[in-house]
Amino acid sequence: MSFPGISLEDLKKFYGELKDGEDNQRKFRDFISQEKWKLTDFQRWLDEAVQKKLSKEFQDIVTLLGKRLGFSVEFGYYSQVPGKTPYDGLWENEKLRIVIETKLGTWIRYDINQLGEYLDRVSSERGGNQITYGMYVVGQTEDLGPLSDQVRGNRYVNRIRIISHAALLKLVEICERTHLKNEQVSRILIPFDAVNVGELVELIQMLVEEAISREGPGLPPLLGSPLVEVPKVSRSSLSDLEEGDIVVCPSRPEGVDFLKRNQAWGFVRIRREPRYFALYVSSPIHAITHFGEVEKVAEPKDSRVANPEEYETYGVGKKVIQLKAGSLKELGDPITKGTQPIPQGIWYTTLSKFLRANTLDDLR
Q1: How would you label 166-186 residue by residue, b for 16+ Cβ within 10 Å and e otherwise?
Q2: Domain end: 161, 191, 221, which one?
Q3: What pTM, to 2 d.p., does this model score?
Q4: For residue range 243-280, what is the model confidence (pLDDT) as tens digits?
């Protein structure tokens, strides 16, 4: 059974007030733990929980988001339970344990030492090799300064972190779009080695390369135009063309099919109409592999791309670069990656540089 658009307020009419150890708690947690829910569902519920002061629901949904970041998760307690450390939630992996404390606002009823004491108790009770940290997840998305100041002035400052629920949702989205590993997520949540800043550089590089690889039309509709056979030529065979600027567009390998089917490229934000087009294909190819002459830059619905709205990167303000019929060529001598970082997004070069280049470095 599906519940599209169901609100927490609607659910509350069925389960009533959530209480530790009662059947309504189990049912609510089972409900939100279903695999069918999208990130937008969680965003809608968390926003509603903040607006309507549903602190227990907020607590459980935040805890569950840890699973989407690759952690094993454990729901906590709504109130004091004899013999238990009353944390709100727990995220764990092989190296890290994060005790979750949720707040709808930035006001802390008890001082920061309470969460610090939970860290000590959990670490002592559970043992193991994990390092135990605490994290406040706050419903308020603005003015986290006062809470940050409280943490900075506390003896547990090196073991407690703060994140808004909005930022947490963004992190989950980044994780799912770029396929971040849980180890990489952990390095974001718990700051890097303050001495070895190379770790930060490595993670940024990985994110940039992944963003580049996701450029292009995205997944195509199930049915589309047939693939067009594209001749393979050397770059020297293009030397008779008039000098002009070339727009270079990055793509995942599967984007080549879109290019061949449509003799066009989309969906990109582009302000000028270049004379030529080139396609850079990301990992594992890392090279400019295709070239064509631009016929026009068009609105998607005015191009030859069928059903453009069905592609995942279709959007307002994005255009299609339509090529002249029969001008698309596969390069027999592709331009491979050099030593410099690949620009993110579309970029430009000239035909003369394109013909002479040994690597992408020569196109700058």
Answers
A1: bebbebbebbeebebebebbb
A2: 191
A3: 0.57
A4: 999 999 999 888 898 999 899 998 999 988 999 999 99
